[in-house]
Amino acid sequence: MLQQLLPADIRGLDADATDSRIRAARTALGSKLVILGHHYQRDEIIKWADFRGDSLKLSQIAGNHPEASYIVFCGVHFMAESADILTNSDQAVILPNMTAGCSMADMANIDQVEACWSWLSTVTDTSRIVPITYVNSTAALKAFVGKHGGASCTSSNARNIVSWALERGDKLLFFPDQHLGRNTAADLGLDPAKDMALWDPAKADGGLTADQVRDSRVLLWKGHCSVHARFSVDQIEKARRDYPGIHVIVHPECSLEVVRAADSAGSTEHILKKISDAPAGTSWAVGTEVNLVSRLAHEMPEKTIFCLDPVVCPCSTMYRIHPHYLLWILEGLVEGEVRNQVSVPTEVAAEAKLALERMLAIS
Ligand code: SF4
Fold first, then answer.
1. pLDDT value for 181
2. Hey, which of 136, 177, 267 would you mutate to test ligand 1's pocket, going by the most ligand atoms within 8 Å of its Cβ?
3. Is the dihedral of CA 309, 52, 179, 285 positive or negative?
4. What CATH number matches the domain at 8-101+317-344, 3.40.50.10800, 3.20.20.60, 3.30.1330.60, 3.40.50.150?
5. Would the N or C end of the chain have less CB density within 10 A of its end CB?
6. Model pLDDT, residue 84
């Protein structure tokens, strides 16, 4: 994804001057503009967001604001694609920095998934496999899933979607995050050792034998989130030693071992609600992106809240949305120029929408 170098007069601005120009541009655009901020964005961006949320919540909000001509999505590329699919054709969805991708979403591309499906068809009946894609995936993968009778899922509704898929077919193929797939299937009572197999796109035939495919109910794609892969059982044990009685809560993109060692697991919205609802004086060790954890700690000083990983672990691609990019986008809109519009081709969008709509109907 190409990102134009920002003009020198913007690159040289300090924080106060940047804020003042963002404020002016925002005021000039009025109700034509909606700014969405993902929970993992830095505070300097979140403060401009009309709405905060996880990827699905923000895409739904985008779909509920037909009056806005411009939806500026402060998140990563796949989120802006989902918002574009769920909004009207006369609305522009904009990603402030086009290099803000997602390393997990990049771990499965459409050619790899088509090749996997084609090989699976030589060893089993693919009409009995239900493909499920985590929303952290490209629109092309959502379209593949829509075309083959599957659905998207989020970390909030994965349990319902996987359950639906298991009732509907003999097997499911879950991509691109192996951990969300494994954690969800294990939570539904499946045995990771016996019922699941890992498809490695870097290996011939995914590194699987025909028997392994036939014997499994869940085929997991070998992808992961580099942020959530950092959390470990050792960190949880240390938190428990240092803070007796602490509640450990993690995101289901963490490994099965980490999820099992924690007290609870759930989406960013779940983590946020659980900690917000907890009484003062409680302590929380949190296994998710540090910008969200630091914000919770700042907003709730009456509770002890810290990130499980002592070495700060921001999502580096989310971090690419710097206030200078937001300013450049907004001033462009004021001047009548739409920059960095994310547009999913119509035929891809139609099939991807099927996957998203099925998900919304099931969850
Ligand atoms: S936190 Fe992980 S899954 Fe989320 S955008 Fe960053 S790399 Fe992707």
1. 98
2. 136
3. positive
4. 3.40.50.10800
5. N
6. 96
